[in-house]
UniProtKB/TrEMBL annotation:
Protein name: AMP-binding enzyme
Entry-linked InterPro entries: ACP-like_sf, AMP-bd_C_sf, AMP-dep_synth/lig_dom, ANL_N_sf, PP-bd_ACP
Entries under PANTHER family matching the protein: FATTY ACID SYNTHASE, NONRIBOSOMAL PEPTIDE SYNTHETASE
BP term (GO), one: amino acid activation for nonribosomal peptide biosynthetic process
Length: 664
């Protein structure tokens, strides 16, 4: 600060700007200089703002202007506003919606409707219909069996349909914590789940009959699920290690979510809601249980859940047998691909679990006048926000908190909210938060944090508040780094959707290559004409088009590992040994490159084949450099190889290097 002005600068309105040196020997970051502003000419009565910085970064004149701007900003504050209100919440990124004071238990709500409308259909699957009274009788039977077994925890793998509903509500009636598994989980994963929770009973079904089988436990100690009583269920997700991780939800949290969804009007008494989501995904509970707390009807497709039931589900929708469709964007795209027609009489579409883009939003608005974009992690009990889609000009926001939920956009340190319109981490608070992760106290403490006495969940998602609604900006860890570049997979999908004939797109990365799969009528030439315009280092390595539905995970989200397999399979059939028409090699250098690349990428390439179009990548070029040095004694530079990444182009560089070596 040796260059700073020492004398005070008098300003209009009696304010004075004083710039003073600050003695401090710690390192500085380039932020504004220390500034002292006094109001009314009295230093003692003023507000002091002191910020340290590297004085070589800014001139004294520039910092004087900063001071003037600060004075003007303070002059705009109402004179009667207490100093304690200067940081009022409206200035920061926080939103909340007041919820109802009452949140009855799910089972209590079901029995209420069972008493009011005993003869109304509660569930429908094909020709089988169960009334509320019939369903309650079956639930009571399961409850009694579980009570006799003194069960505390159950694994539920009942058939997708009425049996599943009976099993879930039977567990709740008996006070038994349940964990759903489904037939699309591998035997290894199911075994890992059972080892973690050590269930007392296994609930299965066959041909409409539920079976309760006691489980002999390997140990006599109870697993440490969470520190809370009154648990309802656990959903298993896979963390970064791929190991199943249990998220435990209390009955109170489930009741709070049901109250919020009811207040938001997700399901009404005269609705019939389509149940299509795998029971291992928590959003399935808004299809299986939520309708029964509102006096509505659950309709199951004959084929089962997920992709197995899609074709029948589309037919059910087109026959106007349901009024509410609920699921992920990927599932919605799949239903549309299975000829869910425009103009269908759907009262409400609730879509979440993945980013909703404007293209799909347009399609959904053509099928329903009430489209809701919802958002929420498993740890916040199903959904936490909603936005009613009225325009498809932009990707829809995820909206405002559901009643009883609170959203904060926080800084990276998770200590304070950022200003409105600034990007930050999405935190969620409310009584619907999960109890935590089973047997993972450190992970629970890391993700469920206390700020100013309030419990928040750190979603790991990025967002900002704009126009009073939350804009979802993806995962904080969703970027991938490849070939020295940071890449967002969603950008490839957005680019692909601009190609004529493309109705949907999905991108995936295996750590070395980028894969893009499109659906529609686009030709390979059309795809290539767009991707070739991208910088070579970040072009998709392999891309293909299909008319089949995209592969989905058991939870109805895009299965990116299967996307990679699908692209490879299509490419293997669509692309014969590349550029055979130009495979007349010119000399031994071209022959050497063609042979090397063939070994590295597993495909015969022609002399004019571009490495990146053939599935190669920067590592292939790196091997080319090292092999040329070892085999031929030639020193090649990676930067030169990028200029013309064909055997012909590389061979040309090698010839020049060979001449240089001979001359030396």
């Amino acid at each position: 600060m040796d260059a700073a002005r020492q004398e005070p600068l008098d300003l209009e309105g009696g304010a004075r700007l004083v710039m003073k040196p600050l003695l401090n020997e710690t390192a500085r970051v380039p932020v504004p200089v220390p500034v002292q502003i006094t109001v009314g000419g009295s230093v003692d009565a003023g507000i002091t703002l002191r910020v340290d910085f590297s004085s070589s970064m800014y001139s004294t004149e520039f910092m004087e202007q900063v001071g003037l701007d600060l004075v003007q900003a303070m002059a705009d504050i109402p004179k009667d506003l207490p100093i304690s209100d200067l940081g009022r919440r409206e200035s920061f990124s926080e939103l909340s919606t007041e919820g109802t004071s009452e949140a009855p238990d799910v089972l209590e709500l079901f029995y209420r409707w069972s008493s009011l409308t005993p003869d109304k259909a509660a569930t429908i699957k094909g020709n089988l219909s169960l009334t509320y009274l019939q369903l309650s009788e079956r639930i009571e039977n399961i409850r009694n069996q579980l009570k006799k077994m003194n069960a505390r925890t159950a694994v539920v793998s009942a058939e997708y349909g009425p049996d599943l509903v009976v099993a879930l509500l039977g567990c709740l009636a008996a006070g038994v914590e349940y964990v759903p598994v489904s037939d699309n989980l591998s035997a290894d994963r199911v075994e890992k789940i059972k080892l973690q929770i050590e269930p007392d009973v296994d609930i299965t079904s066959q041909q409409g009959d539920l079976s309760l089988t006691p489980v002999v436990k390997a140990s006599k100690t109870e697993p440490d699920k969470t520190q809370s009583e009154g648990l309802a269920y656990a959903m298993f997700t896979s963390g970064s290690t791929g190991e199943p991780k249990s998220v435990w939800i209390s009955r109170k949290a489930l009741a709070r979510h049901v109250a919020a969804a009811s207040q938001a009007g997700f399901v009404e008494q005269d609705d019939c809601i389509l149940a299509l989501t795998s029971p291992t995904f928590d959003i399935s509970l808004d299809e299986l249980l939520l309708p029964l707390t509102q006096g509505a009807t659950v309709v199951f497709p004959a084929g089962g859940h997920g992709l197995k039931g899609v074709k029948d589900a589309a037919s059910v929708i087109n026959r106007s047998e349901v009024s509410v469709v609920h699921g992920t964007p990927s599932m919605m795209e799949t239903l549309i691909a299975e000829r869910w027609g425009e103009g269908s009489d759907i009262r409400r579409v609730i879509v979440g679990g993945e980013r909703l883009d404007k293209e799909l939003a347009t399609k959904l608005m053509q099928r329903s006048s009430d489209v809701r974009n919802v958002y929420g992690p498993t740890e916040a009990t199903i959904w936490a926000t909603e936005h009613r889609v009225t325009s498809s000009q932009e990707d829809p926001p995820i909206g405002t908190p559901l009643p009883g939920y609170e959203i904060r956009i926080s800084n990276d340190m998770l200590t304070v909210p950022v200003a409105r319109n600034e990007v930050g981490r999405i935190l969620i608070s409310g009584e619907a938060l999960a109890e935590g992760y089973g047997n993972l106290p450190d992970k629970t403490a890391e993700k469920f944090i206390i700020i100013d006495g309030k419990r928040w969940y750190d979603t790991g998602d990025l967002g900002r508040i704009q126009g009073g609604e939350v804009i979802f900006l993806g995962r904080s860890d969703s970027q991938i780094k490849l070939r020295g570049h940071r890449i967002e997979l969603g950008e490839y999908e957005s680019i692909a959707k601009t190609i004529e004939g493309v109705t949907a797109a999905a991108a995936a990365c295996d750590g070395q290559q980028i894969y893009v799969l499109t659906r529609g009528t686009a030709t390979r030439q059309a795809l290539e004409s767009v991707f070739v315009k991208m910088p070579q280092a970040i072009r998709p390595d392999l891309f293909a088009n299909t008319d089949e539905p995209f592969p989905l995970t058991p939870n109805g989200k895009l299965d990116r590992a299967e996307i990679i397999k699908a692209v490879k399979k299509i490419e293997e059939g669509a692309l014969p040994p590349s550029a055979n028409e130009s495979n007349d090699v010119k000399d031994e250098f071209e022959e050497w490159v063609i042979e090397l690349w063939g070994d590295l990428i597993g495909r015969v390439v022609g002399r004019s084949s571009n490495l990146f179009d053939e599935g190669g990548h920067s590592l292939t070029l790196a091997r080319t450099v090292s092999e040329a040095k070892e085999d031929l004694g030639l020193s090649l530079r990676m930067s030169d190889l990028y200029e013309d990444s064909t055997p012909s182009g590389i061979a040309s560089i090698m010839r020049k290097e060979a001449v240089r070596v001979l001359e030396d």
